[in-house]
Amino acid sequence: MSYARVLCVGLVGVAGRLVEVEADLSPGLPAVVLTGLPDAALQQARDRVRAAVVNSGCEWPPGRITVNLLPAALPKHGSGFDLAIAAALLTGAGALPAGPLDGVVLLGELGLDGTVRPVRGVLPMVAAAAQAGITRVIVPLPNAREATVVPGVTVRAVDSLRRLVGFVRGDDRLLDPPPESPAPAVTGPDLADVAGQQFGRYALEIAAAGGHHLALLGPPGAGKTMLAERLPSILPVLDDEAALEVTALQSIAGVLPPGSGLIRRPPYQAPHHSSSMAALIGGGSGLARPGALSLAHRGVLFLDEAPEIPRTTLQALRQPLESGRVVLARARGTTEYPARAQLVLAANPCPCATTDQRCTCSPQVRRRYIGRLSGPLLDRVDIRIDLLPMRSAQLMTAGGPAESSMAVAARVLRARVAAVHRWAARGDWRINADVPGPQLRQPPWLLPARDTVALRTALDRGTVSARGFDRVLRLAWTIADLDGRDRPGGDDVAEALQLRTGNAGPAPMAAARRPHLTAGRSDRPLPEADSSPLASLPAGDPVPGHGIPPLAGSPPSPPVGEDPSPTGATSLFADESVVRR
Ligand SMILES: [Zn+2]
């Protein structure tokens, strides 16, 4: 026999395709030709496979060897085809009997000594094989655990080419996947470590409950990073579908710990502000790799010192945040990665990054600094809050340990369950942040006109954009969910509006309704509402001549039935085309 065929899987992004590895041996001058759109790493498979075959005690077949990877149009990259290539050409040369490897997918990289090395992306590859009807796979031993999470597939492992050869000849056994190592106890950062910052904790809880993006502004030491790091600890554990996606992405990026099964905790990514666009969004030469945004899929992407991040990089985040996926076009093909991450931005109020007392930056400098956060990106952030520096009174009056992540997570879960039940009737949205704006402005979710007076006024004045209008509505639903109310009322909408427009200190409405948020602050008057640099930002959609007029205090509630906004606001409900999305 001079021809053989073995199955393997190629990956483009998270999508896998079954690849047939053909080997043909013909008389002629000794040569190995590799065809079928291989990349540089795959081209080098010729040398790796030759050394591995010889060092495994097999004879290298004489003559001309042609290895072809089908389908030829699919770009193939990496070293995961080595094992399949070796098996195909040994079978083609007659050194191995044909048959035992029929219908089996082989994955693995070969070392020169014939050891089988782990490869990236085994989980999505095995999932793709299962989808194509394959029921048996052979993978490198370190990848065996992750391969077993795919249902309906029998996974066996190899540690060397010698073992595979022995198995096919019938005188050796394949290895069983190692047992799952007991899940490590959750020892991540806990909210109990955060003293004071009641308002920051409250904002974090709302963000977690509704899946809202969050911006934290405050001087160094105010606890921005501490809070952001603890957001995953109050998010619900990942369901099966999300866990598979997250584990697959980590497998592709090569950051999945060896021997680990499904990842159940929401991931957390905090790239440095000097990270390149490729590191943040995804990219690189050849076929693009996932970036921090995709590695934070179903979890949290924390961008500290956000104004220091180049504007073009921040702008590049906008579209993926909206669509939940990153599409990267390269010469060798287009790659797509999921990117449904919850964004937390943090910023110092000024470039000198010191405490308020020592800062000498002028208001213009401070405004320009925060202005580096692009308006359109910030327009997609639902909650923008100022964290005030901690005072001794707060630390001392905090009294006892702060509430733990577990307690907060229980409330978050309750709110999320309420949202799932509500939206299940109309669509498959699971969190409030996913609900399309038009749905919120239609019965049965349309709120009574008296409850949205302040919001409609803000839209007419240009203090919130049309996109912001919908985001405030979503936020109001989340506040109601957390408080256990069926529907948001006027106070919920007003509170959401204040959380959205970035007042300094606790939003007045939230503080008035929740006295514990201002506990320990009696030594210090609340700052003027318009002192927040966030409040001076444009409202996102370009509205010439409009800064955000501060919303001091809670908006006056007009008598029921009276509508203070003369025109425009009502037309938003009548004509959805007004809302440019
Ligand atoms: Zn300063």
UniProtKB/TrEMBL annotation:
<dbReference type="InterPro" id="IPR025158">
    <property type="entry name" value="Mg_chelat-rel_C"/>
</dbReference>
<feature type="compositionally biased region" description="Pro residues">
    <location>
        <begin position="552"/>
        <end position="561"/>
    </location>
</feature>
<dbReference type="Pfam" id="PF13541">
    <property type="entry name" value="ChlI"/>
</dbReference>
<dbReference type="GO" id="GO:0005524">
    <property type="term" value="F:ATP binding"/>
</dbReference>
<feature type="region of interest" description="Disordered">
    <location>
        <begin position="519"/>
        <end position="581"/>
    </location>
</feature>
<dbReference type="InterPro" id="IPR004482">
    <property type="entry name" value="Mg_chelat-rel"/>
</dbReference>
<dbReference type="InterPro" id="IPR045006">
    <property type="entry name" value="CHLI-like"/>
</dbReference>
<dbReference type="InterPro" id="IPR014721">
    <property type="entry name" value="Ribsml_uS5_D2-typ_fold_subgr"/>
</dbReference>
<keyword id="KW-0547">Nucleotide-binding</keyword>
<dbReference type="InterPro" id="IPR020568">
    <property type="entry name" value="Ribosomal_Su5_D2-typ_SF"/>
</dbReference>
<dbReference type="InterPro" id="IPR001208">
    <property type="entry name" value="MCM_dom"/>
</dbReference>
<comment type="similarity">
    <text>Belongs to the Mg-chelatase subunits D/I family. ComM subfamily.</text>
</comment>
<protein>
    <recommendedName>
        <fullName>MCM C-terminal AAA(+) ATPase domain-containing protein</fullName>
    </recommendedName>
</protein>
<dbReference type="InterPro" id="IPR000523">
    <property type="entry name" value="Mg_chelatse_chII-like_cat_dom"/>
</dbReference>
<dbReference type="InterPro" id="IPR027417">
    <property type="entry name" value="P-loop_NTPase"/>
</dbReference>
<keyword id="KW-0067">ATP-binding</keyword>
<dbReference type="InterPro" id="IPR003593">
    <property type="entry name" value="AAA+_ATPase"/>
</dbReference>
<dbReference type="Pfam" id="PF01078">
    <property type="entry name" value="Mg_chelatase"/>
</dbReference>
<dbReference type="Pfam" id="PF13335">
    <property type="entry name" value="Mg_chelatase_C"/>
</dbReference>
<dbReference type="GO" id="GO:0003677">
    <property type="term" value="F:DNA binding"/>
</dbReference>
<feature type="domain" description="MCM C-terminal AAA(+) ATPase">
    <location>
        <begin position="291"/>
        <end position="383"/>
    </location>
</feature>
